[in-house]
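Example for tutorial group B:
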């Protein structure tokens, strides 16, 4: 392992760096170590998920324990009042403390139950302390794991200057073949980058140099006529920006010949007859597969393989390529690459009932659009972003799920994405937040799929694909037949706003009933909101109105009857269908419920097919 070029100078009393012991390590062993560190990180994430679930269960445990205390106290008061009443009837006014038989068996049981509840409370407190301690240990382990991964990443890093001699040789040979004089300057060679990233991009870097010499730098006579030095200047500038390495390839040549590019694109069928496009779109045509403006086949140009490979390789690594050109002054290609392929920052998204991840570097902005604004954006087919129009898509539709529909909610998140000069607006159901994840290889089958940058494993054990929606949209635009298939599957044009899904609110004080009903409804494709009593339901109704409500009668703070009165008395919620599900199956309860405006009444336990059929008919109007 060579000493990195960025080593800092030592003080006089320190030993020179040359005496530092070095060890050669096989690349496959190093990759295996990095992979094992990633597995440790995934296992820790699973433990964190389990501890978080345990915390939630303890919270429910505490809630139920408090409710049990209240109920037990009420039983004690009822027992005491009954004994006092019985004593009054028998006219026994005096009480001998030694006559223990006056304490009924009911009182003894309530006292024993109170002691048992206190024992359970002690157990709950002990369990809470253990969970808090486990959480603290996981935080410490996360810090140690992060340090381990960071150190392993540093071992994988090599300076960009390690391929400098290779680039100089390519520049010399290319200039000699076309009889041009060029001067190559590499700055920032001490910046380190992942060895596998650098190896994979070495060939595209070489092509960028050949392309700059063959097409960018003018001949000696042309440069002299333009008042330039006959030696062309090529600059490779390397810098690190956050979790990215940015590499600029620039030259002082003539820039891109946009007229020639348009003519060539028209001859290849990339442009329709008479079609007018802007300079930025014309410049990006050089990234089209098989595109070349060379008139003759040489070792340097004319083979139709080049710039498209540069862009595809960068995108496959989770990076992007930006192009800037100024006529007569030169062109600059800016390549953004991840520092490492082992760990990445992603944004987790929920859409169509599934979870996906996007590289954070693609996300430029996150908007929260209300229904009216989103419907208008769908009618226009785009969202204005930084003076440009970003085409609007729904993520599952981009993935080929033509019948997918967004969740019904008052506002929806829309992500503004940017990759190079391409922009895209992406609607999803929810944004789950940023995560640092370990990237896994998806294998040769999925690696050939457009728009899949990798996969990762969440703490829950779920496998999540890391997507590049910009590449998916480009692929869809280049294949009109796919657009037609998606439109046929959806029964409408993908450019129109998708129909909203159905949301059901379950209001019940029993945690078990809420969870069982939630699983039943989600299995049928409904979005589910949960409320533990009438007050909680009214608070949630202020922010979101469901399409239907399932309500229990007996609940603390506010029962089902009072909740129904409030729902029917509010203009926003008066038309929401309500199904009452309760253990009170007497006719008087049913009549009161129906009198308040309940649409259907079921006793517990209910038959699932009958309930689902009633829900479907009420939602259908």
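The residue assignment follows.
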């Amino acid at each position: 392992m060579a000493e990195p070029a960025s080593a800092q100078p030592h003080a006089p009393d320190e030993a020179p760096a040359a005496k530092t012991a070095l060890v050669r390590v096989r690349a496959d062993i190093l990759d295996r170590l990095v992979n094992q560190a990633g597995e440790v990180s995934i296992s820790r994430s699973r433990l964190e998920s389990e501890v978080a679930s345990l915390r939630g269960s303890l919270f429910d445990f505490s809630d139920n324990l408090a409710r049990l205390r209240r109920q037990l106290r009420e039983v004690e008061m009822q027992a005491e009042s009954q004994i006092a009443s019985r004593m009054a009837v028998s006219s026994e006014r005096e009480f001998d403390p030694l006559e223990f038989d006056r304490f009924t068996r009911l009182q003894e049981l309530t006292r024993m139950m109170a002691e048992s509840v206190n024992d359970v409370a002690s157990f709950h407190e002990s369990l809470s302390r253990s969970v808090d301690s486990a959480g603290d240990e996981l935080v410490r382990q996360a810090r140690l794991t992060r340090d381990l991964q960071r150190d392993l990443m540093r071992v994988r890093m090599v300076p960009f200057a390690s391929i400098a001699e290779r680039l100089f040789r390519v520049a010399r040979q290319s200039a000699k073949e076309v009889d041009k004089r060029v001067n190559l300057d590499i700055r920032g060679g001490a910046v380190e980058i992942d060895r596998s990233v650098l190896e994979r991009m070495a060939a595209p870097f070489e092509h960028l140099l050949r392309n700059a010499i063959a097409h960018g730098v003018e001949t000696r006579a042309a440069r002299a006529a333009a008042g330039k030095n006959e030696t062309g200047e090529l600059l490779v500038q390397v810098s690190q920006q956050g979790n990215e390495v940015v590499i600029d390839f620039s030259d002082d040549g003539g820039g891109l010949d946009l007229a020639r590019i348009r003519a060539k694109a028209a001859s290849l069928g990339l442009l329709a007859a008479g079609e007018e496009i802007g300079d930025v779109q014309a410049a990006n045509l050089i990234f089209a597969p098989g595109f070349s403006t060379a008139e003759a086949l040489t070792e340097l140009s004319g083979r139709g393989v080049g710039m498209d490979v540069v862009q595809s390789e960068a995108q496959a690594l989770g990076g992007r390529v930006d192009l800037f050109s100024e006529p007569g002054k030169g062109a600059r290609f800016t390549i953004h690459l991840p520092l490492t392929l082992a760990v990445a920052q992603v944004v987790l998204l929920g859409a169509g009932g599934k979870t996906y991840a996007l590289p954070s570097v693609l996300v430029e902005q996150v908007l929260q659009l209300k229904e009216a604004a989103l419907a208008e954006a769908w009618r226009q087919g785009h969202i204005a972003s930084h003076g440009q129009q970003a085409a609007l898509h729904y993520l599952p539709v981009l993935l080929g799920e033509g019948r997918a529909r967004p969740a019904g909610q008052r506002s929806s998140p829309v992500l503004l994405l940017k990759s190079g000069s391409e922009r895209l607006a992406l609607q999803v159901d929810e944004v789950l937040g940023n995560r640092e994840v370990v990237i896994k290889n998806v294998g040769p089958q999925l690696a050939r799929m457009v728009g899949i940058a990798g996969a990762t494993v969440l703490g829950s054990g779920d496998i999540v694909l890391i997507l590049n929606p910009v590449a998916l949209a480009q692929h869809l635009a280049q294949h009109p037949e796919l657009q037609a298939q998606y439109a046929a599957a959806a029964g409408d044009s993908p450019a129109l706003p998708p129909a909203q899904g159905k949301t059901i609110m379950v209001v019940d004080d029993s945690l078990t009933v809420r969870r069982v009903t939630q699983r039943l409804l989600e299995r049928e494709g409904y979005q589910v909101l949960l409320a533990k009593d009438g007050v909680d339901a009214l608070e949630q109704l202020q922010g979101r109105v469901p399409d239907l409500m399932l309500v229990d009668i007996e609940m603390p703070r506010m029962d089902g009857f009072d909740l129904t009165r409030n729902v029917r008395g509010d203009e926003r919620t008066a038309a929401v269908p309500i199904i009452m599900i309760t253990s009170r199956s007497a006719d008087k309860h049913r009549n009161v419920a129906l009198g308040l405006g309940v649409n259907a009444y079921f006793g517990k336990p209910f038959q699932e097919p009958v309930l689902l059929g009633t829900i479907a008919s009420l939602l259908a109007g």
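The two ends are 72 Å apart (CA to CA). Compare this with the pattern of hydrophobic and polar residues in the output above.
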